[in-house]
């Protein structure tokens, strides 16, 4: 769901950073290691390939390039972005029990399930 900053507390960035740091920049749902502050694409790729081999297959995806008529390897590094999800979808409820560090994939899935029930 789109983020409306007006609904969040002024210290939201600090709250979210504290949670992400607490879980060592790892998704609390699926265990995906995520990009750390200041980590560039090359460093992220190296860390995943060397320390988290089971996730290396998610770094890129083969896609059909219609212009050249071949398959190309496309980076999918946004899958390794850590977010902070409100389990009740109420941005003002920042109790730790209502917040979960989720990779972008898990956060999207969680929000889509909630939207499907509306």
Proportion of residues in helical segments: 25-40%
Total domain units: 1
How many strands appear in the DSSP assignment?
4
| Percent of sequence in beta strands | 15-25%
Tell the overall outline.
globular
Mean pLDDT level = 94
Q: State the strand order across the main sheet.
A: 1-2
What's the SSE pattern?
HHEEEEH
Number of helices: 3
Ends: how far apart? 13 Å
Low-confidence spans: none
| Main beta sheet strand tally, sense and closure | 2 strands, antiparallel
Please state the oligomeric state of the protein chains shown: single chain
Radius of gyration: 16 Å
Structural class: alpha+beta
Write the layout of secondary structure elements.
Elements: H1 12-22, H2 41-51, E1 60-65, E2 70-75, E3 82-86, E4 99-103, H3 104-116
Antiparallel strand pairs: 1-2, 3-4
Brief synopsis:
This protein is of the alpha+beta class.
Could you explain the architecture of this structure?
With 118 residues, the protein is α+β, with helices and mostly antiparallel strands. It has one domain. Helix content is 30%, strand content 19%. The protein contains three helices and four strands. The chain has a two-stranded antiparallel sheet. The protein has a two-stranded antiparallel ribbon with strand order 3-4. The mean pLDDT is 94.
What brief labels describe this structure?
118 residues, alpha+beta, two-stranded antiparallel sheet, 3 helices, 4 strands, 19% strand, globular
